[in-house]
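Work Package 4 report. The design task specified in the project plan requires that, given a folded chain encoded as structure tokens, an amino acid be chosen for each position. We show below one input record used in the internal validation round.
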């Protein structure tokens, strides 16, 4: 049964053709009875008209506008040639509904107007002999109601279909927007992980390279210093591995794990440990905190730490062997200020202007992205007296 229903849904013209044959058969039977009761020449014109009206029903969904015009022409022919109404005229109701539901707007309006005029014209052309004028008007109104109802039903179906189509379009659009937002979120997360990896690898590897060079230089003359440098390389490597495990844990689970093998994200309190590490690696750093320390949002904590980390890494890489640095952390009423300066030879011009070295300058690019994400400002460039200077202002909101 379901297969038959699906087949009929896929072939609606076949269904309409079946109803058309049924309607034509009834019309021929009615005309035959009329012939026997009234006049013999009635079937001569009635049968072709009934056949064409049945064709209107059969093809109403394939070409609704053309079938409406054909029905209109047949109705006029009935009036002019005196072919009285018959069961096949039911096709006019059917085509009125069809064009109201699926046809063009002009065809829908035409069908409504013609339908409202068809019944009065038929009553005037073939009046009831025993009906009074008031009764004739009542019959006109009563016979016009089916055309009005057919049009209203068809127009309601059109409106409903348009509403569902709009809902489907909206659902499709929302789905595409969700996919786009998901892609943006994935890209943002990848960029964040890339910044984290850059900061972790660039800082720790630079420390390890400096210590390894120093150990190789004093290996024969001062074995104790070489051993200390190797210990620093070992501890720095372990720290780098721990932070990279944390990042891999974020990639696997989507969450920061603060227990087990993963360590929490660095914060402002760990800047002092970072500076001690730099001092141990041979970079003199002066560190001062001004203002009253207070709790910071986690994003600001991580941003401040990474800015200091990247700035000191650049000093080691580009400042020269005798460079020194200073770090100022200033708590304002509405923000956190960072100032990192060095007295070295300074970074290459393309590093902070065009991103041409150091992996295409991802260090300073990452800084600007981090600061932008928390709504802060960053200024980086050479100092007038030599060296390099990085200053940042991060908005500060109390943590409740």
């Amino acid at each position: 049964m379901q297969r038959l229903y699906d087949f009929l849904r896929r072939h609606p013209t076949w269904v309409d053709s079946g109803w058309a044959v049924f309607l034509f058969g009834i019309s021929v039977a009615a005309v035959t009875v009329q012939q026997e009761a009234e006049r013999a020449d009635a079937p001569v014109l009635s049968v072709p008209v009934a056949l064409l009206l049945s064709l209107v029903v059969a093809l109403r969904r394939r070409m609704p506008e053309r079938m409406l015009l054909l029905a209109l022409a047949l109705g006029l022919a009935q009036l002019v040639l005196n072919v009285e109404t018959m069961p096949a005229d039911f096709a006019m109701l059917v085509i009125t509904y069809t064009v109201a539901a699926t046809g063009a707007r002009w065809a829908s309006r035409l069908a409504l107007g013609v339908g409202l005029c068809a019944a009065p014209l038929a009553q005037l052309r073939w009046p009831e002999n025993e009906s009074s004028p008031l009764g004739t008007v009542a019959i006109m109104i009563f016979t016009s109601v089916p055309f009005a109802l057919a049009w209203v039903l068809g127009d309601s179906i059109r409106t409903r279909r348009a509403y569902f189509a709009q809902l489907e379009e909206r659902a499709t659009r929302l789905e595409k927007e969700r996919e786009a937002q998901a892609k943006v979120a994935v890209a943002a997360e990848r960029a964040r992980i890339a910044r984290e990896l850059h900061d972790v690898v660039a800082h720790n590897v630079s420390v390890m390279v400096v210590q390894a060079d120093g150990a190789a230089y004093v290996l024969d003359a001062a074995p104790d210093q070489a051993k200390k440098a190797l210990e620093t390389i070992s501890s720095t490597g372990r720290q780098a591995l721990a932070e990279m495990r944390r990042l891999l844990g974020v990639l696997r689970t989507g969450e920061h794990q603060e227990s087990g093998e993963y360590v929490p994200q660095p914060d402002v309190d760990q800047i002092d440990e970072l500076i001690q590490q730099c001092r141990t690696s041979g970079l003199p750093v002066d560190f001062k905190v001004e203002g009253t320390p207070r709790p910071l949002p986690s994003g600001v904590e991580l941003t401040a730490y990474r800015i200091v980390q990247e700035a000191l890494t650049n000093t080691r890489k580009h400042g020269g062997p005798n460079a020194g640095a200073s770090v100022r952390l200033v708590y304002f009423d509405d923000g956190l200020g960072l100032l990192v300066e060095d007295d070295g030879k300074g970074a290459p011009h393309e590093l902070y202007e065009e991103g041409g070295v150091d992996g295409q300058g991802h260090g300073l690019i990452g800084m600007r992205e981090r600061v932008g994400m928390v709504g802060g400002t960053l200024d980086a460039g050479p100092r007038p007296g030599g060296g390099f200077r990085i200053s940042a202002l991060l908005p500060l909101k109390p943590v409740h």
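Residues 254-263, 354-360 have pLDDT under 50 and may be disordered. Validation will be extended to a larger panel in the next phase.
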